[in-house]
Amino acid sequence: MEHYLSNVETVIKGLNSGAGGLSAEEARQRLLANGRNELAKEKKKSLARRFADQLVNPMILILLGAAAVSLVLAILEGGHDNAFAEPGIILAVVIINSILGVYQENKAEKAIEALQEMSAATAKVKRGGVVSQIPAGELVPGDVVLLEAGDAVPADMRLIQSASLRAEEAALTGESVPVDKITGALGGDGGPVPLGDRKNMAYMGSSIAYGRGEGVVTGTGMDTEMGKIAGIIQSAEQGQTPLQIRLHHLSKILTVAVLGICVFIFALQVVRASVSGDVDSRVISASFMLAVSLAVAAIPEGLVAVVTIALSIGVTNMAKRNAIVRRLTAVETLGCTQIICSDKTGTLTQNLMTVVESYGDDKLLAKAMALCCDSRLAPDGRITGDPTENALVAYALKADLDKNRLEAEYPRVAEAPFDSMRKMMSTVHKSGDGYVQYTKGAPDEVLGVCTHALIGGVPAPLTDDIIKSIMDKNSEFADRALRVLACSYKTVDAAPVDCAPDKLEHGLTFIGLEAMIDPVRPEVVAAVENCKTSGINAIMITGDHRDTAFAIAKELGIVESPGQAITGRELDTLSDADFEKQIENIRVYARVQPEHKVRIVNMWKQKGYVTAMTGDGVNDAPALKSGDIGVGMGVTGTDVTKNVADMVLADDNFATIVAAVEEGRRIYDNIRKTIQFLLGSNLSEVLCILIATLLGFVLFKPVHLLFINLITDGIPAVALGMDPPEPGAMDRPPRGKNESVFARGLGFDMVYQGIMVCVLTLMAYHIVDIWHDHEYAMTAAFFTVNLCQIFHAFNMRAPRKSIFKLTTHNKTLWGAMVGALALVLMIIYVPAFYGLFELKPLTFGELIVSFGLAVMVIPIVECVKFVQKRYSKWS
Predict the structure, then answer these.
(1) Which pLDDT tens digit goes with each residue over 689-737?
(2) Domain 358-515 belongs to what topology?
(3) Which of 267, 291, 633, 795 is deepest in the core (most CB within 10 A)?
(4) For 240-319+665-871, which CATH class?
(5) What distances in angstroms separate CA 609 from CA 240, 581, 588, 644, 807, one per listed residue?
(6) Which residues are known catalytic residues?
């Protein structure tokens, strides 16, 4: 039953209730039948489950498989001194990565709990005609609840009494000003009425800003509008971020490649032995060990950890820029965001009604408006009350008219409170020996009770020409989506005996108009322009009226023509096919409901766009969860929004999103650098082992490969993750959602650079092998490949530009280079270590050969970059 379409009597009868409420016994029976007035709780993941989720990753599973094989082989070989080093190191990498992931993502989703916290703890209810206060959780349909200013609405209810009742519904509907409430049935065509227009209803999650009233409960718990939102949040799927998709794809490629290489080498060795007739358990074991060595070489053990660390560093950097990230993998998502669907109130605007224009006798107008309102001015300067009336008091303050001093000088003696039917409010004040009455309200209504107007400070008869000029100015304000109030006055000799509106509101003199709006955040205009430059489309989604939304959007530069704005009701008339065709032209959605926001976000995602949704209200939560990334507001946002969001703006500043986009792009660029660096390094190791195997000698052992992967690959890779942003990062369009991690030439660069390092390493081996024996040659190859990785890390700082033209610096990378080099030298020259690694200390000449070959990676890559810049499409 749509209770807002029926009159009060029908609603009460339909709920089997009465003006005196339910009996205690009937309420008890209904509580048993309907359950408590609470929202369903979502089951939390245990710590063990979250840790297990970190392990269910193809890359991690490959590492665990390699560790298991290494462990079995170590046991079979009798557990010699360094037999368990390989599985131990691999397991350490996995555990450290998982701990980092759980630590960052351990904040369980508290959306449903926050929704419950928004429910009122107690409620004033009529039971058997007696008013009592009960826990809000015990409310049932049919209960009659009393409401007054300051109360949180404890359940959904149909209003049956209203005395100037206004409800603050911004968190639920997006409406920026309190809504005047009525008791009559809503007319129209009898069809569904948008949530924000149901003026005879009050909903859980809203609060009473003004007046008093009564309502009969129509829905509790999950049957409330708040409960519907909770259900949407629970059912919304949490999709993978672009980075997760790319890493998952990369893991699949590596899995196939690693298995293929291992099988090939194992089969090759066994076939060789079969041909020579030397097949036995020892040969098979050695062949299997060689295959494992290749697996270790092919698997970038440090990749998962490096990506996690890079994202963690990004989280820290973004926090310093007022963007608090709750999910690690969401850090880079903004970097490829193509659509930002933004709530208007409190996000693009200041959520602070402000008088921006006036017409008439300004000084008297400010004084009259401040007196004819119920907002309070605290000693510390804070203004509390209805947002519209707060704006009037603030405007008077700017004119040096303190409301408290005004009320002391002109004490209120009588009033006719605001009524949504007549759209006016009147107050009477003592003024010297007489009294003065001020009446404010809708311009047409106020003019209707005026006989004169102040012209040049002198009352003049209200002629048609004066009325036309006033209404023309009112229309001018309205066309700019300003909320307009008029004010009038009259002086009387005695205080009124009868304060009925029809007794007070006549024979008044028009003073003027005050126009107000929730102003845009000053920095948002530039932020929207930056979005355009960066190839990002900003979309406004709001519960406000279309004209207001369009005016704000035009001021911000989001729209150019009225045709780019539609309402939620118009959206309902569009089929999915029609909406898909039109969505790219629509920039403003007005009078929307929560399900509209989810539909909008999902349609953009369906078209293949990476979509962010920003918001601060409960009504935004489902869409925030549905978006590729949800951005909540930290100051004005509800707990629901903050806990559902992937990222929270600590300053509620739309411009912070642009800064987050830049940081996200920097992080993704750096992750691409690390992927190219690590996979190129691993490719060089695989090629070295393959060639050495084919030529019949051992170049590296598994423990050598683990050291290379974790130290001279891993440490510089972490430092690359801290590289500053590349110049012009915000001048290019976002990358495509389906763009491969190897796109824009990364695959080619990785292959040729891997071959380059392999060739240099093999050269070092053969040169020293001629001078010395195999162990010294293997050590020279080990030293060369490590130095190549260290020097090559500097090449990665600018994949397409000369490193000699970089204007930024990465001190961390220099530190990583020195640290990695020190560890390599320690492995070669400290007896305890070179014995463990089965290496030999190199002579000075052998060091010079290795160093000279390794440093060649820089001029070789510089030459290739030069050629690419002139001829390649990737430059």
Answers:
(1) 888 878 878 788 767 877 787 778 878 888 888 888 877 777 778 877 6
(2) Calcium-transporting ATPase, cytoplasmic domain N (3.40.1110)
(3) 633
(4) mainly alpha
(5) 14, 14, 18, 21, 34
(6) 343
Q: How far apart are CA 610 and CA 334, in angstroms?
A: 8
What are the φ and ψ backbone dihedral angles of 650, each rounded to 5 degrees?
Answer: -65, -25
Of the candidates 370, 368, 310, 408, the one whose C-alpha atom is nearest the C-alpha of residue 488 is: 368
Asked if 594 and 622 touch (Cβ cutoff 8 Å), the reply is yes
Residue 836 tokens, joined: 């463990």
> Residue ranges of the domains in the chain?
3-41+113-235, 240-319+665-871, 323-349+522-652, 358-515
| Element holding 145 (H helix, E strand) | strand 144-148
Q: In CATH, what number does 323-349+522-652 get?
A: 3.40.50.1000
CATH of 3-41+113-235, one of 1.10.357.30, 1.10.10.920, 2.40.50.100, 2.70.150.10: 2.70.150.10
**Quick one: 870 exposed, middle or buried, by C-beta within 10 A (0-12, 13-18, 19+)?**
exposed
Instruction: Please give the helix or strand (H or E) that residue 422 lies within, else none.
Output: none
Q: Is the distance from CB of 543 to CB of 592 less than 8 angstroms?
A: yes
342: tokens are: 């933004």
Q: Is the pTM of this model over 0.70?
A: no
Chain CA centroid to CA 485, Å: 37
Contact, 485 vs 447, CB < 8 A?
Answer: no
Residues 142 and 119: beta-carbon distance below 8 Å: no
CB-neighbour burial class of residue 527 (10 A; exposed 0-12, middle 13-18, buried 19+): buried
Q: Please report how many Cα atoms fall inside a 13 Å half-sphere around the Cα of residue 295, on the Cβ side.
A: 28
User: How many Å apart are CA 630 and CA 612, to the nearest integer?
Assistant: 6
Taking the CA atoms of 760, 764, 770 and 774 in sequence, report the sign of the dihedral they define.
Answer: negative
